Amino acid sequence: MGVEWTALHWIYVIFIVLIIGFMVKRRDTTLICILGIFSLALIATGSLSASVSGIFNSFIFAITELMSTILVISIIVAMSQVLTKTGINDVMISPFTRFITSPALAYWIIGILMMGISWFFWPSPAVALLGAVLLPAAIRAGLPSLGVAMAMNLFGHGIALSSDFIIQAAPKLTADAASLPVGEVISASIPLVITMGLVTTITAYFFLRRDMMRGSLPVSTYIHVENENIRSEHFLSTSQKKFFSVFIPIVFILDVVAMSVLKLQGGDATALVGGTAVFILIILSLFTHKQQGLEKITVYLIQGFQFGFKVFGPVIPIAAFFYLGDSGFQKILGDHLPATSHGIVNDLGIGLAALVPLSKEVAAVTLTITGAITGLDGSGFSGISLAGSVANLFATAIGGGAATLTALGQISAIWVGGGTLIPWALIPAAAICNVDPFELARRNLLPVTIGLVVTTIVAMFLM
Fold first, then answer.
1. Is residue 131 part of a domain?
2. Per-residue pLDDT tens for 139-156?
3. Going by fewer Cβ within 10 Å, which terminus of the chain is more open, N or C?
């Protein structure tokens, strides 16, 4: 094998298989991950107390690694709460409604806007920001509400979330698990994101238009649903809303320019976006709530943190387990690997290369399937650490292609689990558009599947 496989390696493999199996069965993997951490710690240290402590320390390590990601998403969600509360989001989006004059324009305009906003605000807040304003305009133009939901899903929870070029939460998770720089994973993902996005959205629109012409998708009538999460209040005048609706996009565009000029990536880029969002949150809170502005800043931040930890709660245990496969092992459990070891995952890759003559085609297909399986829990993010870890393993076995494989696993996991195929992950968009989430998932299934197949083939040529 070239390296010495110990009980630690076999325990790690067994628990990877168990985690995938539980995901396939749509069961929660938290307990399995905790048991995996405990088992690895017990075998490594031989101490019951150290093993129990290892669980907590692994959580601390994972939270430390993920904290910047959790923090920026929480802050952005907090900021989006102010935009929604004041109605600034309505004014930001309203200029585009005049262009929505046909079903085709409605589909593509809503989709592209959703993608752009999701890159900065993440898809869940973007659904609320966009849906309430553009849904009536799209329906008046003849696009069924199901088509609106598909556009928001595929462009937001699909393209934007799987690429995550601005906030860089997804590439950080996969890059860390694969022991790669974030910028390398992002660069490798660009052609795959473009391929997946174009194939999926064009295919979805083709099927949607075909069924509309057949009359199997009746034109919707807009039903206003009062929702406390999207209801705005009259805090600002029209001119004030217009000012902020121009000011906020300009500030974020300046962030993007700064990232390009200063070559900011990864944590630096995330910090810039997060700090900007904090200042916007403070300015809007003080300007909107006047005397109560100081207290409202805290209220909005609490709402953001509640969302952030709710989303990343399931991610922390699984990330803690997979960090043990690489650099996290020594930091959490100490130096208990063999002297010849390169880390559990690297050892498995070297051993696999010696046992099975893998090819780039087999590796690409395996990463797509692994990513899709990890997405079955409906989170999208809980399994991308596994995708990065497996990508590292296969890249070691075939002698290259780590960044492309990591990006492929990330795209597959998030497209499946992030909100395009799993019904319980589709609920926000389905609720805003007043459609059945299971029907929405059914409509997305074939386009997303075709997209994954084509993207996997493209990845084979890029490796």
1. yes
2. 888 899 899 999 999 999
3. N
